[in-house]
Design a protein that fits this description.
The complex is a heterodimer of chains A (410) and B (147). Chain A is of the alpha/beta class and 410 residues long. Helix content of chain A is 40%, strand content 17%. Chain A contains 14 helices and 17 strands. Chain A has helices at 5-10, 37-49, 60-79, 94-109, 128-137, 157-161, 182-191, 211-214, 239-244, 279-295, 297-319, 347-356, 369-375, 391-407; strands spanning 18-19, 22-23, 25-26, 88-91, 115-119, 140-144, 166-170, 195-199, 218-222, 233-237, 255-259, 262-265, 323-325, 337-342, 359-360, 362-364, 380-384. In chain A, the strands form 5 sheets. Chain A has a 7-stranded mixed sheet with strand order 4-10-9-8-7-5-6, sandwiched between helices. In chain A, strands 13-14-17-16 form a 4-stranded antiparallel sheet, covered by helices on one side. Chain A has a two-stranded antiparallel sheet with strand order 1-2. In chain A, helix 4 (94-109) packs parallel to helix 5 (128-137). Chain A is globular, with a radius of gyration of 22 Å. With 147 residues, chain B is α+β, with helices and mostly antiparallel strands. Chain B has one domain (4-146): Alpha-Beta Complex (Sufe protein. Chain: A). Chain B has helices at 4-7, 10-17, 65-78, 83-96, 125-146; strands at residues 30-35, 42-50, 53-62. Chain B has a 3-stranded antiparallel sheet with strand order 1-2-3, covered by helices on one side. In chain B, a hairpin with a 6-residue loop joins strand 1 and strand 2 (42-50). In chain B, helix 4 runs antiparallel to helix 5. Chain B starts with a helix and ends with a helix. Classes of the chains: A alpha/beta (410), B alpha+beta (147). Chain A binds chain B through residues 20, 346-349, 352-353, 356, 363-365, 369, 372, 378-379, 407-408, 410, and chain B through 1, 3-4, 7-8, 13, 17, 38-42, 62-66, 68, 124, 127, 130.
């Protein structure tokens, strides 16, 4: 299927909105993505015609709601090529999915003298849960550093992984856009006897994902970044690992039996899904997966590659030495998430001027303060592109940036 | 919609480009640190209180034009003033930023001077945190100095 960005845009009603009479230039999809009619309609339709509890009541409406809820799980499993549907666990968000791994697998497996390896480009969600457990258990956290062009410096990887029990890393940096060699990193982890945990929040929405080709042990991502609704994250894990792990949250739905003396856990996936789930959101995510599948993730990646090349070229051509773009200059090694510094103008002030032109970017530390310190700044401007962005969005960004430069000439 | 000129008044840009009382002070000066967790801005306030007077103040850290100019104006406004007056000014400034901490209406006898220019920030709710960061950090420094 050929990719037509104008047709894609027509699927996203918010992109037709005018704010103060001007069109919206949405360049914050690494933060959260906009929603197509297919997702909006599926959720609305379900609420209007099919909403009921899942996995508990015996009447027809409830059985049909359960089928749709579980059907969405099967769609997600196929989307990431998970070997088994029940290895896909619904969570509140990707942050909760990472916390689940740390609080369940980590509590069962990590103690003083152990080591976990992370990287300098991780999101706080893949740092703080480990630091919290390390403070209790006394294990060590080792860090894979970066090269000067924002790639992982793998020259010392085997030493860092030596004796480690887990290697947890991002498949794509939410700040630098760097696409990491995930399969190679999983293999290195396994060679050292460590499990491989992949934070795929920035990867799953933007490129084809195959957890078996990666040979990962756990993969986490969020619905809201892949044109689905907020309030839902996904944890995929190997069945054998998930089966061996203790439960995370206790309550209804996750038990097989409860007596005054204690409880037994339900089978996967219910074991990790305590309480009423985000059923409507799961229906929405299923629709998002259908939508992205119909477009083709290869097409999404190809479009974003083109946008990356155009954005990097345009920013460099127009602003030259006034702009510092973080991360790799090679679009083959990165996604369409572009962080930069512009002269000495603070990112907050730049985003304020951009906002006057409805150019929506993120200014700040992007929940990656350790990385910010390494970059030697406390904030960047980040423009992130998705399947619905066009070359005119790049022009709008450059024009607004010029205006910010004029306004803040120091 | 409020325009950029409502936010970035000339006096604000002047304080941003030429910040007053920039630097640090050695102990026995007290030091406090403020962070804006949303954007990563950091402010350091160094303070010497002598005989109930803000004898010296220096500002460190980095941030946007609003947080930096607010800190600069604040330092100029409280330097040499009695501690009670500095506290009253913090209360009054936060009141101007629509931050209601309860208690009495602020004392308006002390003129705000340059600080009036920051009034436009209220029209940009996201930026209120930037403007208030240094004032909260000063309040903390005054508390430490009082210990």
């Amino acid at each position: 299927m050929s990719f037509d960005v104008q047709k894609v845009r027509a699927d996203f009603p918010v992109l037709a909105e005018l704010i103060n009479g001007k069109p919206l230039v949405y360049l914050d999809s690494a933060n959260t993505s906009q929603k197509p009619n297919a997702v909006i309609d599926a959720m609305t339709h379900f609420m209007q015609h099919g909403y009921a509890p899942t996995n508990r009541s015996a009447y027809q409406l409830a059985a049909e709601a359960t089928d749709k809820f579980e059907g969405a799980r099967a769609k997600v499993a196929a989307f990431i090529n998970a070997p088994k549907v029940h290895e896909v666990i619904y969570t509140k968000n990707a942050t909760e999915a990472l916390n689940l791994i740390v609080r369940s697998w980590g509590v069962a497996n990590l103690s003083a003298g152990d080591a976990v390896v992370l990287t300098h480009m991780e999101h706080h969600a893949n740092i703080v849960p480990w630091q919290m457990l390390a403070a209790e258990r006394g294990f060590t956290i080792r860090w894979v550093p970066l090269t000067s062009d924002g790639l992982l410096d793998l020259s010392n990887l085997s030493t860092l992984l030596d004796g480690a029990k887990a290697f947890s890393f991002t498949a794509m940096s939410n700040v630098l856009g760097t696409i990491n060699p995930t399969a190679e990193l999983c293999a290195a982890a396994h060679k050292a006897g460590a499990i491989a945990i992949v934070d795929a929040c920035q990867a799953v929405p933007h490129m084809p994902t195959d957890v078996q080709a990666w040979d990962a042990d756990f993969v986490t991502f969020s619905s809201h970044k892949m044109v689905g609704p907020s309030g839902l994250g996904i944890l995929w894990g190997r069945e054998a690992l998930l089966d061996a792990m203790p439960p995370f949250l206790g309550g209804g739905n996750m038990i097989s039996d409860v007596k005054l003396e204690g409880f037994t856990c339900a089978e996967l996936p219910a074991k990790f899904e305590a309480g009423t789930q985000a059923v409507i959101e799961a229906i929405g995510l299923g629709a998002a997966v259908d939508y992205l599948t119909a477009i083709g993730m290869d097409n999404v990646r190809a479009h974003e590659y083109d946008m990356t090349v155009l954005a990097l070229d345009s920013l460099n051509d127009r602003f030259g030495s006034d702009i510092t773009i973080h991360g790799s200059t090679d679009a083959a090694l990165r996604g369409a998430t572009i962080s930069f510094a512009y002269r000495d103008v603070h990112p907050h002030d730049i985003s304020q001027v951009l906002d006057q032109n409805n150019v929506c970017v993120r200014a700040g530390h992007h929940c990656a303060k350790p990385l910010m310190r390494i970059l030697g700044s406390n904030a960047t401007v980040r423009a992130s592109f998705y399947l619905y962005n066009t070359p005119s969005d790049v022009t709008a960004l450059c024009d607004a940036l010029s205006e910010a430069g004029d306004f803040f000439t120091l | 919609m409020p325009g950029l000129e409502d936010l970035y008044r000339e006096i604000i840009l002047d304080h941003y480009k030429s910040p007053r009382n920039r630097g640090s002070l050695e102990p026995p000066a007290v030091r406090s640190e403020g962070h804006n967790p949303l954007c990563g801005d950091e402010i350091e306030v160094f303070l010497i209180v002598k005989d109930g007077i803000v004898d010296d103040i220096k500002i460190g850290g980095q941030g946007c034009s609003i947080s930096q100019s607010s800190a600069s104006m604040m330092s100029a406004a409280v330097k040499g003033k009695p501690v009670e007056q500095a506290r009253a000014l913090i209360h009054r400034f936060k009141h101007m930023m629509s931050i209601d901490e309860g208690g009495e209406e602020p004392d308006t006898s002390t003129p705000l001077g340059d600080l009036e220019a920051l009034q436009g920030v209220v029209k940009f709710p996201v930026r209120i945190k930037c403007a208030v960061l240094s004032w909260n950090t000063l309040a903390e420094a005054l508390d430490i100095a009082a210990e």
